[in-house]
């Protein structure tokens, strides 16, 4: 394993130094192994590992390339890791979301377009006043994703997208067991949207915090 780690570090070093840039094709395996002082087996294992986390793209019959290194692509690995969370860590995921998402919502208040606001409003109108829990949770995910995307920060967007999975079950559970969960969620969505329309970053931040904290508070009392 130590040999593979060394191979990974050497390839990483080439990318960080600029010797290999996004979209570049790696030299032939034999040439690269010789250049880096590695065995072909350790190089092969390193390439396999780096392809799993979207650093390299292995194209059969064509060679191995450095990916675009776009944050959204690289953070796909986070979603994979997050899928292995334990139920007792959901509160920790919610706490991280409560830190990041209000900040993204405040940023969006200054950048979101009128067309995007109208689309979010239409989404809520289409949902109606008495949606099923499943419909509400699906809309909730899309609603917040649309806002975060408007923040203009692709890293923040990818991080929050990756963190949303573990909290989905908690939101469904809350909707099924808490009497006013559906109506409360709809009211909070409208309040966030209103703050965004007013371009009031602090009000948008506050309502997003309240929205996430209410799920967190309910889950803490239910465990």
UniProtKB/TrEMBL annotation:
The HTH gntR-type domain is annotated at 1-69
Say if the entry is tagged with keyword S-adenosyl-L-methionine: no
Pfam families in the cross-refs: FCD, GntR
UniProt keywords, alphabetically: DNA-binding, Transcription, Transcription regulation
Q: Which CDD domains match?
A: WHTH_GntR (cd07377)
Instruction: Name the SMART domains for this protein.
Output: FCD (SM00895), HTH_GNTR (SM00345)
What top-level branch of life does the organism fall under? Bacteria
Xref: PANTHER family: TRANSCRIPTIONAL REGULATOR, GNTR FAMILY, UXU OPERON TRANSCRIPTIONAL REGULATOR
Protein name according to UniProt: FadR/GntR family transcriptional regulator
Species name for this entry?
Answer: Streptomyces gilvifuscus
